[in-house]
Amino acid sequence: MRLLRVATCNLNQWAMDFDTNLRNVKESISRAKAAGAVVRIGPELELTGYGCEDHFLEQDTTAHAWECLKDILSGDYTDDILCSIGMPIIFKSVRYNCQVFCLNRKIIMIRPKMSLANDGNYREFRWFSAWTYKDELVDFQLPIDVSEVIDQETVPFGYGYLQFLDVSLAAETCEELFTANAPRIDLAFSGVEVFMNASGSHHQLRKLNLRIDSMRDATRLCGGVYMYANHQGCDGGRLYYDGCCCIAVNGDVVAQGSQFSLKDVEVLDALIDLDAVSSYRACVSSFREQASHVTKVPCVKVQYKLCQTFRDGMIPTDPIEVMYHCPEEEIAFGPSCWLWDYLRRSRASGFLLPLSGGADSSSVAAIVGCMCQLVIKDIDKGDEQVKADAMRIGQYRDGEFPTDSRELAKRLFYTVYMGTENSSEDTRSRAKRLAEEIGSFHFDVPIDSVVSAFLSLFERLTGKRPRYKLTGDHILRIWDCKIFKLESGWCWPL
Q: Which of 272, 301, 330 is the last residue of a domain?
């Protein structure tokens, strides 16, 4: 029995925050090794952060990524564990989104991304080029400072797989999981058993269902082990990456990480029986027939064993039932996690919300309330990082820390009802009741005097004073004798 313990992770990486990103990568590798894993994969572009945008066009961004990788290789982090680390790399003046495979303080292969994401919120073609050359691996000259540290001048670069003495592994990167002619098809026919996907996939409603279905289908049709890693957090931009790292085997999910979490580092491991992959493929006659036609895929041969010797008590990880949040939970948890992440990393002290009692502002208030509940839940679970952030933002002193979501909200969430003579008692009472339920520090501030002052100033400057009248389904604005009709949000002269 060939047993292989593998580890994947969710990391909260921020664009251009190299120190924190490097610390999280090191922590994830250390946890994977502590769990006994001999293979570890991290998210796409984990050293730089995924959302660097036009900073990717700066040479320094790539240079700092190499400095981080050199730091990792200088220590014992990659001793006896194969690590896939995501970073940008410039090869012959072209920038690629790459996975760098490291083992025992050496770089054994660099795999550039071949299918870039360029629709929806993604603009990878703006910063990277897709690798299209599949015939053979080429030599990549390592930067001098890296070369001197690891005593290695060149490394294989391109599309291919790693052939160890007892297992074969290959990479897919994010978008390649969803492409019609995915790299894993030819790789599976070439005998690759473990696929490692470094991803930077942001949250969309029900998107997790698509990811899980794709991983299941990928391993159900071709057999094999699929390791999926993802970012988790807001990355400093307007998107939220929802994590949910996974490990799938032959169509079944055997390990699933959290989809919404406030953790900076989450590591997931599983013990895999690779003979089950061989048996699964051998039982499908159509797979055998197609695989018998030799597909030439370049490979790097590594004279090293990764599989563990079977011992009593070593049982492969069983399939699990995938956990999905309902749509209402996704709507609440995604924005809540984004708000907390941005609040703590921006070093701000809280949020201020004009709470009108209407649907929009009330929804935002409810999301902040949900954020406070998530923080307390993680503190109760013993998350020291969340606890430290909450103590700093809430300005707790003398060993005190938050234990109640409403008390925490009172310290960092301020709501204001800015009423006028036109406001209703219904909206005023709704705003007050919601603020009390959430626990925010609530103000009821009449602004009639402010409105009056503004109108007086406008009249003094223009000689006109606006008056409003509702007629049918149009609003007529009367500026003395001139009438303007408001349609579709615009003011047009009649």
A: 301
Q: Among 190, 166, 192, which residue's Cα sits nearest to residue 277?
A: 192
Domain count, the chain: 3
Q: Along the chain (494 residues), what's the average pLDDT of each consecutive run of 10 residues?
A: 96 97 98 98 98 97 98 98 98 98 98 96 96 96 97 98 98 95 94 97 96 96 96 93 98 97 96 96 92 88 92 89 97 96 94 95 96 97 95 94 97 95 92 97 94 91 78 43 40 37
User: How far is 87 from 149, CA to CA, in rounded Å?
Assistant: 19
Question: Token match 């003395």: residue?
Answer: 480
Residues recognised as catalytic: 44, 113, 174, 356
Could you tell me the residue range of the domain that residue 218 belongs to? Answer: 3-301
Q: How far is CA 105 from CA 118, 148, 427, in A?
A: 34, 12, 64
Q: Which H or E run contains 468? A: strand 466-471
338 burial (CB, 10 Å; 0-12 / 13-18 / 19+) is buried
List all residues 6 or more positions away from 471 whose beta carbon is below 8 Å from its beta carbon. Answer: none
What's the N-to-C CA distance of the chain in angstroms? Answer: 83
Statement to judge: residues 368 and 287 lie in one domain? no
The 3-state DSSP class for residue 325 equals coil
In a domain, 240, yes or no: yes
- Predicted TM-score (pTM) of this structure: 0.91
The 8-class DSSP code of residue 38 comes to S
